[in-house]
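Example: MFS transporter.
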Amino acid sequence: MRDVRLASSQGKWILLTTVLGSSMAMLDSTVVNVALPRIGEDLDANLAALQWTVNAYMLTLAGLILLGGSLGDHYGRRKVFVVGVVWFAAASLLCGIAPTAGVLIAARALQGVGGALLTPGSLALIQASFHPDDRGRAVGLWSGFGGIGAAVGPFLGGWLVDGPGWRWVFLLNVPLALLCAPIALRHVPESRDGRSHGRFDVLGAVLGALTLGLLTYALIEARQGSLVVVLTAVAGLASGVAFVYVEKYSPDPMMPLDIFASRQFTAVNLVTLCVYAAFGGFFFLTALQLQVAVGWSPLAAGTALLPTTAMMLLFSARSGALADRIGPRIPLTVGPLLCAAGMLLMLRVGPGASYVADVLPALLVLGTGMVALVAPLTATVLASVDTARAGLASGVNNAAARAAGLIAVAALPLLAGMGPEAYRSPAAFDDAFDRAMLLCAGVLVVGSVVAFATVRSLPPDCRRPECRHHGSITTPPLEGERAGRRIA
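Written out as C-alpha cells, the predicted fold is:
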C-alpha cells in the first residue's frame, strides 16, 4: 500500500534502509579496484586472478539482476531484499577471511548473487511504500545518497587498505547489514505484485550467466592458447545462441526480445555497451596504474578518482535538464568524445606523474563527458519504449552496462598485451596501460558515431527519469516502477 509519507518516522526509516542496502552493492563496485594490488601481493595472485576478483562479482550480478527483481515481486519485496542483504553480508565475510585467491573469487561470485537480490529491491521498496506525492522526492534522495556512497567508495577503500588492510574492504559490509536488515524487518512494509503469476525464467537467467561466464573465462585465459580455451569460447557462443532461442520462445522471458523492435532502444544499448565497456576497463586499470606504475599508495589512488564521481553527483541533474531542452543526440555524441579525450590524456600518467598537472586534467575531462552522456542516455532508454515497459527497458540497459564492463575487464588486458605478472612490473604495466587507453578511447569514438547516426529527438510526452542525481561510474541508474524485473 503506497501511503507512507516521506516526512514520517517510518518514511525516514524506509529511506535509510534502502540507502544502506544499495550502498553496500554500490561500494563494492568501486572500492575493490583500489585493493587489487594488495590482494595480489597478499594472496600471491597473478593478473588473471585479479581480473576474476572483479569479474566474478559482476558476472553473477549482471546475469541475475533481472531475475532478482521478479523474485521480489512474487515472494515479497522486503523479504527478498532482506535475504539479499544477509546473503551479501555472509559472502562479504567469506571474502574477508578468504585464505586463497580461489576462495576469494568464489565468494565474490556469491556476493554478486546477493547484489542481484538487493539492488533492484531497494528501489522497488521505495516505489511500493511511499505515497505517490512523495515517491519522486524519495527516489531523488535515494539516488543522491547512493551517489554520495559511490563518490566516497574509492577513498574509503584506499583508507581501509592502507589502514586495517584490504580484508576490511569486504568486512565493512557485515556491520552495515546488521544495521540494515533489522530496520527493514521492523519498519518497511511488505509488498508484492498482484499480477505476478509465479513463473520465472530461470533457464534464461542460467543461460545468460553461463554465456558471460564462459566467454569471460575464454578471454582471461586466452594467453594460454590451449584447446580448453577454444572449447570454452565455442561453448560460450553456443550458450549465447541458446539464450536468444529461450528468450524468443519462452512464454515468460526474462528479457523479451521484442523490446529490441525499437531501433532507438537497440541503438542506445549499443552506445551503452561501448561507453560502459570503456568505463569498466578504465577504472579497473587506472586503480592499478596509479599504484603499480606511478607508485602511489591505495589511499592516494582512491582519492585521486574522486573528481569523476563527484562531478556526476553534482551535475547529472543539470545535464538531464539540458538534454530535455536540446535533445539527447548532441550530448550522446559529444559526451563519449570528451571521455575519449580524457582517456587519451591519461597517456601522460606514468612514473613520476603529478596529480595536478597530469591526473586531474584527464579526470576532469573524463568527468565532463560522463556528466554529459549518462542522464541523456537514461532518458533515451525510457523514451524508446512504451511507458508500461520503462522498468524493463531500464533493467535491460543496466544489465547491458554491467555485462559490457565484465567483458572489458576480461578482454582489455589481453588486447593490451598484459602478461600474467604485468602488474608486478611498473615499466611493463605502464606500456600496456597506454595501449589499453588507446583501445578505450577508440571504443568511445565508436559509441559517439553510433549515437550521432541513430539517436533522434524524444517525444514530448515520453517517460522522464526519476533519478536526477547519479554518482555511479559503472552502470546507468535503474529507473521506473518496475525497474530490474520483467513486466507482464
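The domain at 9-189+197-201+252-454 is CATH 1.20.1250.20 (Growth Hormone; Chain: A;).
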